[in-house]
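Q: I'm building a small set of examples for a reading group on sequence design. Run inverse folding on the following structure and report the sequence directly after it, with nothing in between.
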């Protein structure tokens, strides 16, 4: 890895340039210098070192940004280009990213955002790859109507409540995705836009295409038209997930019910945990057993599969022990039957832990997230307590 990243800042706003120079001083092994407008295009004779990163102003016309980059590339062909802007229009962001910009930085720029962008370039200079750091949790139900999308969306929202954590929710039910309904969103961009511009896809492009759902939580929607599903290939899915792991601390993926194809296999391969959602009914349990067999045949280790039961009611016709005996695997978690509150939150388009944080399901989801973060600390607890407060 290079010992130093050289950065040239060419911004019309001298006060902003000075502020960003100060931010760079806090990042180890970085040397940042200020260029005056137009000086960069004159070539390497105007600077002491060749920059790894060139940071410059945005333009209302994305074509002007492309021309600017072309001029820079004549002298600095290997540099990465950062655009500084106040413009948050999604269409403009996409057009600018297509022009070849590595990072689209909206002011005020947070130090962590700036540091992550620099480290991305540093890593690419070192080995041409990207650091995958985020955890991927995928949710798939053993049959339709079990509420796995509700569980996934609320899990993502709960994870995002933690300090200094960035979370992404991906709707990978590509033909019938409805996670956006639970978040009351009408996304301007979807996974289909990424696929159409796959030749331009990098971490920054992905970040620009994400829709902000709430503080700390971004969302990637399924295609608007079910027929667009056929254009999304396994390579697209794998690449998007790998890029997301560099941008986010946690990625929650809502998968189609009881569906195994080449796309979902790529999701499962990249997942730290696969949460198989059932209820305590014979059809759901039977399908869960079949799904586990399919996963194993496709090379997915069952060690990463955790079975969770939604809408659990104490004293139901099937006991937890009977289900575990049938599946040959312990249940990881029990989500309570809180149907009235869940339906209310769906109709409002608000995750339940935001809509009603004190209800049983919301408290249960927060405990579930705690177990994700520290599985051994709460190894015996599975979300519901029995007699005398003992874990079921």
């Amino acid at each position: 890895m290079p010992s130093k990243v050289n950065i040239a800042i060419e911004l019309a706003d001298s006060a902003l340039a000075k502020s960003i120079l100060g931010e760079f001083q806090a990042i180890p092994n970085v040397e940042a210098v200020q260029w005056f407008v137009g000086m960069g295009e004159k070539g390497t004779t105007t600077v002491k070192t060749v920059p790894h990163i060139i940071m410059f102003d945005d333009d209302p016309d994305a074509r002007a940004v492309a021309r600017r980059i072309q001029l820079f590339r004549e002298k600095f062909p290997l540099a990465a280009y950062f655009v500084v802007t106040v413009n948050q229009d999604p269409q403009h962001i996409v057009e600018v990213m297509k022009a070849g910009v590595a990072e689209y930085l909206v002011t005020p720029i947070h130090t962590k955002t700036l540091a992550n962008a620099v480290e991305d370039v540093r890593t690419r200079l070192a080995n041409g790859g990207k650091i995958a750091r985020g955890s991927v949790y995928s949710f798939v139900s053993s049959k339709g109507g079990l509420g796995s999308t509700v569980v996934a969306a609320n899990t993502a929202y709960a994870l995002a409540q933690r300090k200094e954590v960035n979370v992404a929710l991906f709707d990978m039910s590509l033909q019938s995705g409805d996670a956006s309904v639970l978040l009351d969103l009408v996304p301007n961009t979807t996974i289909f836009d990424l696929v159409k511009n796959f030749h331009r896809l990098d971490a920054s492009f992905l970040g620009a295409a994400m829709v902000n759902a709430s503080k700390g939580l971004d969302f990637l929607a399924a295609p608007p038209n079910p027929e667009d599903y056929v254009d999304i290939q396994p390579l697209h899915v794998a690449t998007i997930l790998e890029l997301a792991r560099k941008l986010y601390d946690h990625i929650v993926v809502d998968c189609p019910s009881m569906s195994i194809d080449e796309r979902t296999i790529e999701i499962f391969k990249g997942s730290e945990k696969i949460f198989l959602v059932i209820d305590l009914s014979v059809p759901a349990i039977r399908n869960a057993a079949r799904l586990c067999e399919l996963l194993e045949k496709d090379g997915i280790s069952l060690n990463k599969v955790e079975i969770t039961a939604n809408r659990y009611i104490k004293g139901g016709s099937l006991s937890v022990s009977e289900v575990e005996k049938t599946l040959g695997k312990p249940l990881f978690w029990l989500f309570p039957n809180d149907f009235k509150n869940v339906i209310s939150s769906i109709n409002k388009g608000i995750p339940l832990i935001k809509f009603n944080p004190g209800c049983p399901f919301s408290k249960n989801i927060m405990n579930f997230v705690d177990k994700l973060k520290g599985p051994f600390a709460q190894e015996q607890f599975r979300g519901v307590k029995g007699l005398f407060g003992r874990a079921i």
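The two ends are 50 Å apart (CA to CA).
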